[in-house]
Amino acid sequence: MEWIKVRKYYKESENNRQGVERCAADLKQWSGSKFGNITRKVRTIDKELKFAYNGPQDSFSTEAIRKLKKDRD
Predict the structure, then answer these.
(1) CB-based burial label for 18 (10 Å; 0-12, 13-18, 19+)
(2) Total number of domains in the chain
(3) What's the farthest any 2 CA atoms get from each other in the chain?
(4) Burial, 39: exposed, middle or buried (Cβ in 10 Å; 0-12, 13-18, 19+)?
(5) pLDDT at 47 over 90
(6) Coil/strand/helix, residue 31
């Protein structure tokens, strides 16, 4: 349904900056609800990875590192 809005705003925005701004705002809201805050998630995982790399190297931390890398990718 969001793509219908995109097409509508694209047509409106050919000579209309407000259409582009509304389209951008709608897409930002849609991506946030669909995927969440990706930047924040990546930062959190990177911090956890740094902590795991600096900790003891046992089977638990190795598994945690593997899972964090998978989540990040």
Answers:
(1) exposed
(2) 2
(3) 61
(4) exposed
(5) yes
(6) helix
Report CA-CA distances (Å) from 23 to 33, 38, 45, 65: 15, 20, 31, 39
pLDDT of residue 14: 60
Domain limits at 24? 2-35
pLDDT surpasses 70 at 56: yes
Cα 54-55-61 angle, rounded to 5 deg: 115
Burial class from Cβ neighbours inside 10 Å (0-12, 13-18, 19+) for residue 52 reads buried
- Tokens 């899972």 -> residue: 67
Does 6 share its domain with 31? Answer: yes
Same domain as 50, residue 67: yes
Q: Are residues 27 and 43 in the same domain?
A: no
